[in-house]
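Changelog entry

Holo records now carry the ligand SMILES as an explicit input line rather than a separate metadata file. Below, a converted record for NAP, shown in the new format.
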Amino acid sequence: MSGTCASASQPIDIVLVVAVAENGVIGRNGTLPWRIKSDLQYFRSMTIGRPVVMGRKTYLSIGRPLPLRTNIVISRDPAYAAPGILVAADLAKALEAARGDALRRNADSIAIIGGTEIFKQIMPQAARLVITEVHARPEGDTYFPEIDPGLWREIERRPQPKGPDDDYGFSFVTYERRGAA
Ligand SMILES: NC(=O)c1ccc[n+]([C@@H]2O[C@H](COP(=O)([O-])OP(=O)(O)OC[C@H]3O[C@@H](n4cnc5c(N)ncnc54)[C@H](OP(=O)(O)O)[C@@H]3O)[C@@H](O)[C@H]2O)c1
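Structure line, unchanged by the conversion:
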């Protein structure tokens, strides 16, 4: 991802960052259905220095604030709080806080990191999808929304070798919204 800086007049892109199996599965029983250490490193490189926005259940599955990123957690529970995170009561408030943080950090994008509930609601506003395509079809209970080829154009695909700490092979795939400047 480019290190382009944002200015007050420049739009800050909303980018969905997710690992998706070939059957659309992203989660099972509140956690990931695989262990792919190489992808955790990629996730880090795609999100460091940017605000990260997530649903409360995804935050629980991670279990701690992600370092070097402003963690914005969306919850309808007005009493929800945890050290090291900002809690937003709805999507609009989360995006407003993320945009302010991105401007302060000179970041060019906001990373939306799940889960399904959040992806579904924010996908219509996203500029890019940064996807780790996991070459497996595991059982699961949470899915990534369908990527409509009429709306999204694949602009990059990089197959990755399966490392010693990776359950499956995978590819880094980027989609851009069609018609985007
Ligand atoms: N493969 C991947 O890359 C990846 C990435 C992320 C997550 N996951 C997996 O996905 C699963 C979790 O996803 P999920 O869809 O079940 O949950 P989620 O999207 O992480 O969180 C859902 C929660 O977010 C809050 N929320 C959602 N929409 C809201 C709105 N409009 N306004 C206010 N609050 C809102 C609610 O919290 P309250 O109940 O507190 O109101 C809701 O219960 C886990 O298995 C996780 O491991 C996988």
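Spot-checked after migration. The mean pLDDT is 94. Residues 18-19, 26-27, 30-32, 54-58, 61, 74-77, 80, 90-91, 113-118, 121, 142 surround NAP (CB under 6 Å).
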